[in-house]
Predict the 3D structure of the following.
Amino acid sequence: MKMLKFSTFVAGFALAVATQAVEVGKKAPDFTGKDSAGHEQKLSAYKGKYVVLEWTNHGCPFVVSHYAKNKMQKVQEKWTKKDVVWLRVLSSAPGKQGYCSPEECEAAVKEHKTKASATVLDPSGKIGKKYGAKTTPHMFVVDPKGNFAYMGAIDNAPREDGKVSKGADGSPFVNYVDQALTEALAGKAISVPSTVPYGCGVKYKD
Amino acid sequence: MPIRRPRLRNIPLAILALLPLLSSPALGEEPAQVSLLCEVASLTPGKPVTLGLRFKLKKGWHIYWRNPGDSGQAPSVKWDLPKGFRAGEILWPVPKKLPASGMLDYGYEGEVLLPVPLEVPKQAKPGQEVLLSAKVKWLVCHEVCLPGEATLKLQLPIKDRRMGPAMKTKGVFQKARDSLPLPLPEDRRLTAIRGPKDLKLSLEGAPAPKTATFFPAQPGLVENAAAQDLKALENGFELTLKRSEGSPQDVQTLEGVLVLKDEKGPSRAYGISTKLYSLR
């Protein structure tokens, strides 16, 4: 009983800490994690560059539709070619949907023809909780100073499942990450710096 | 009543095959059965009726409320109706809290009927039959999420005088009606105030309940999983809701459902849409 209470307290505390810091304009928490290729990825090592963080889960239908239609890969390719670092983060716990061993993850990365810089494995959910990542996909853009420039949904078409390029409410389709990077690299203010993320819940350890 | 089974999207097999340890259900074990019902057996020119989208969910699975919470997606419907017929918005029953590893979603488990009002035109001709068609999309989750889609059709006769509710649907619609939030009683005074970190909702005119739960209808305004602090006032109560990080500071209204429960008796749910004042 005591153990249970303690762990509940710790989890609550961790989330509270995460929500304190995670805000547009504030410093993005640093993290270190092994990627699917076995390399160490450290956010602060990319200081001076824009970094995109994409929470993912290969089994989530929202993620599947983005990858099956090649939509996510296209945006990844466009920006990694322009020296933007794109890190996918996989916070599914062992036994939960989307969890994979490094070998399995690396095979999935190749099969999906992912154009991200790396896929960071976070089975303990430590990085995800630090960022308060709630859904897959949940997107963050970190500016060259290490501050949050954008956070939220990948686009404004959660219902379209990649089928039609139109916003959910009939407004024109916007990929918020693409828009934020386009504006930021042109030296403009980011017009939509924060949105509500949509998708499957991140499959954290219970 | 026709029942359409959910049709899973064409998730490429190559991708499915790559999913290690994916605990998705075996094909054929559908987690959601969806059907289109009408409260009455026939329609009458000029008289509105209530239709219903009924979801029968496998144990452990859920669908979502209009604000799904931290993840998920509300079901949606696109109507294809004869000329002059008009379907309204879904009337959302009071949802359940669906917690998952530090996050909170809102939705329904078991069996739920989502009522939809239908306007029948005066020009509808008795003796004819009309075909109502609804393209329904939903997301059903239990550890994993599966999108579903179905086109549901219902053929109904138009008669001079309406036939009473069919025995089968009567109870289902009554139950659905009972699960809808009510308007606040006239003698209650509701005030909502926004601060930089939280929103304070106070209701005066009756003693404080034992518990109060607010379900926010606006996504991204209230931190879903945060505790809601209830404080008794002299003849009412104040409920403190934690704002989401990055929620718009100048938000003008607060919409949602307030569920109150006393020591004894059933809970009461009220639909709320109120102006948010700022503290100076």
